C-alpha cells in the first residue's frame, strides 16, 4: 500500500489522523480513498477520534500483535444512533473488512478498517 497523499482527501486533514501519542502519521492512500467515498456518500462530517497509532501508543503497546491503526488502515469515528447505523450501512457496501461497534455509554464510536481480506465485525 502507498502512503497517504495529504491534500487529496476532501473533508479530511492529516492532523485528524496523527498519532495522539507520537504525532506520527503513516495512513495509507487506499484506506483514505475509501474514507473519502464513505464521507461523500454519507453527506455529513465525520469526526475522527483515532487514526494512525504508532506501535508505542498505549492502545497498541498492550496488544501482542499491532492492530490495523498501526498499519495506517483504520480509524474510529464519533457516531451514535441513526448516524452510526447509516455509516455502518455504507461501510458494508464499500467493503470495509473490519467494523467495530461501541454504542453503549459515553464515547460511542464506530471503528472501520481494511486490515484483512476477510470481514470481521465486533462490539466493544
Question: Summed up, what is this model?
Answer:
This protein is of the alpha+beta class and 124 residues long. Helix content is 29%, strand content 18%. The protein contains four helices and five strands, in the order H-H-E-H-E-H-E-E-E.
Q: β content, as a range?
A: 15-25%
Strands in their spatial order, largest beta sheet: 1-2-4-3-5
Helix content: 25-40%
User: How does the major sheet shape up?
Assistant: 5 strands, mixed
Could you give the distance between the termini?
28 Å
List its salient traits.
alpha+beta, 18% strand, globular, 5 strands, five-stranded mixed sheet, 124 residues
Description of the molecule:
29% of the residues lie in helices and 18% in strands. The mean pLDDT is 95. The chain has 124 residues and is α+β, with helices and mostly antiparallel strands. Helix 2 (29-42) packs across helix 4. The chain has 4 helices and 5 strands; from the N terminus they run H-H-E-H-E-H-E-E-E. Strands 1-2-4-3-5 form a 5-stranded mixed β-sheet, with helices on one face. The relative contact order is 0.17. Strand 3 and strand 4 (109-113) form a beta hairpin.
